[in-house]
Amino acid sequence: MSAVPTTAASAANTGNAMPSSIAHAAGAQEACQSINDDTPSVDWDSEIQLVSSLAKLQELERQIHSLRQLLPDGLLEPLLPISNPNQLPTNTPVAGPPTGLRNEMQEAARSQLAMVDQFQSMWHGPELKPVWAHVESRIKESNGQYLQPSGVWEKDYDVILDELTKSEKTTQEEQQCAEEESERAKLETSDDQYQDMAKAFAQRDIPGVRVIIGNVANSFLVVLARAGIIVIVQGIKEPSMSGVSDWQVSSKRASGQPPTQLELDVLGCLRSRPRKWDLTFLLEMILSYADIKKTPCVRCNRLVNDAAQLPTARRAQSTQAPSTEARSFTFDALHANCA
């Protein structure tokens, strides 16, 4: 872990980097009322949790400073051309008729009230609830004394959080790649075994799905009758590697007939999949489109979104039986905007 995030975690535990305005706010009655026995459990030994919480508190203080400008500046901004014309650029039009001025002031009031609502929602929201509970417990542990030598934020925790998140994502991706390489090395599949996999899928007799094994090695057709799509699967080998390194997909259409948008969306998702060497993964993913015109999005529970699109995106979910090292996959259907 880098030195900067570690410093951030240390500051979170000591309170050195927390301004007095936030600490006092955390101890206020309004915050205390939102803390009860069902506060979600949080791992406060996690550095990313500490930095994330500090970033939320930092954002709250930014909003507090913005709200201080609400009265009178924010609400009276439409009157500026009348009250302080010298502060405006040359050729700025003077305020219009009273009805127009009234509309501008109403809009300004709505805008400022929206800022207040946003602040209240964040303050009382579920993400900050455990943070307030933790701050309150730390204040009690120190008999009401919370060390704040500077009274200002010493670091930008949004930046530190971004660094930590990227580092964690990179570590997870490296770990996933290592696991996949290990899994692939154990597979050592021959052409005949690939063909047996395709035959096993064909024998599942899924309604509206037909798997056709071609004469060319490592070549299959998957017909999705209900979706109106025929997927061509072709295995590509690399001389330096054993087995198929990439199962490529394309579609088969009648001569001169352009692909449909649904077909393009499905192929795009299939091509962007991970585990490109894994035939079972690919076939399961293709089969998840068998009833696409009746399968709603798992996130919004709608079949068609506002753009009249079906849920063509897929999110893989893996399971692994305790008795075997092999993993099986299922696929959640999602709209592109819900993914």
Number of helical runs?
Answer: 12
Radius of gyration: 29 Å
Give the topology string: H per helix, E per strand: HHHHHHHHHHEEEEHHEE
Strand order of the largest sheet: 1-2-3-4
Family: Belongs to the Mediator complex subunit 27 family.
Keywords: Nucleus, Transcription, Transcription regulation
Main location: nucleus
Region (Disordered): 168-191
Describe this protein's structure.
The protein is an alpha+beta fold and 339 residues long. Helix content is 47%, strand content 13%. The chain has helices spanning 3-14, 20-27, 29-32, 47-67, 70-76, 80-83, 98-124, 129-141, 157-187, 191-202, 261-271, 279-287; strands at 209-213, 219-224, 229-237, 244-251, 313-320, 327-334. The strands form two sheets. It has a four-stranded antiparallel β-sheet. It has a two-stranded antiparallel ribbon with strand order 5-6. Strand 5 (313-320) and strand 6 (327-334) form a beta hairpin. Helix 1 (3-14) crosses helix 4, helix 4 packs antiparallel against helix 9 and helix 5 packs across helix 7. It is extended.
